[in-house]
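Example record

One chain of 357 residues, shown exactly as stored in the release files.
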Amino acid sequence: MVQQVAVAASDADLDDSTNQLVQRLALSPDPVGVSEAVPDLLISVLRLQCELLDDELSRRVRCLTEIRNALGDLRGLSPRDMIHAAPVVLSREFGFARTMISTVRRSIWLPQHLHIENEGDDPQSRRLREYLTGAQIHLANAPLEAKLIRKRRGLLMPSPKQDKLTCKEIIDVYGCSGYVAAPITVQDRVIGMLHAGRPEPDGIVTMDHLDQLEAFAECLAVAFESAVLKEKAAQQHVAVGNLCDHVEELIGRSNEPAWWQLSAGTSGQRHDAYSRGDQRAVPSLTARERQIMSHVAAGATNGEIARCLVISEGTVKSHLKHIARKLNTSSRAAAVAVYAGSAPAHAGESRLTPARW
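Predicted structure tokens for this chain:
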């Protein structure tokens, strides 16, 4: 607050010096007649401009440092833990008394986690928490947040009670004189929002607060997306490992080595069912069925296969049923083993109707 007052004073001094300089020059259009005061005024204007630029640079450096510290606290967390921690980190690093993270599903605003600094001293905290717990707010009743999502831009609301677009029911419970909000955007789609503010009577918010929140929200979106991709990669790694274990078990029953254990010198070529030209182990599979089996061997789910091939999940299931009948198998692992050419079509399987995958 002290710094904001100082910057405002510098702005006022700059405007005053600039106006005096313009008036002096207007009175003496002839350079020869310029008074001695004009150079002094010009030096004063330049000095104030430099001071303001220094203040702006310091502010931006401080903001970047706060964001870096905040991201350091979020680094390594799972997506779920990151959502829990973001409001706490935001409050601690930027000095907000209340912070909240929400998700957005279609036209519904879903508050997720609310953090209140010094909750025991906040008279509105209990009422606010009770209102937001499990709340599902239709964006038609919160046109300001709907505008934020539509334009993918943050908003500064210094007087929410007077603004016609705010949701008055929330504002009455929130009990604040101002707040800022910013969208969390992943792949050009708003998946959530951040709200931050201070309770009355000193709940003043400025453009500086909005700049901080927007920058933090942008960095949070990148960190969250990276955490999601890392978690999915770990899950797929485990799935592929489990699949390999199942295939090795089936191969062990037939006393034959797994195809990835065969050396190039022994086989003459890699036994790769989806890279080699001959398909002697599965001659009856169609091109589409072989394409689907290559994804199954990589550990993909039916939904992932459907999205990759741009077909419905029901179509994938139908293809898998046909493959199961042709290979005489009843599990994905057994089908992969047969498809890879490392196990006979009857290995480890009973001649029952193929089960649902």
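Notes: The chain has twelve helices and six strands.
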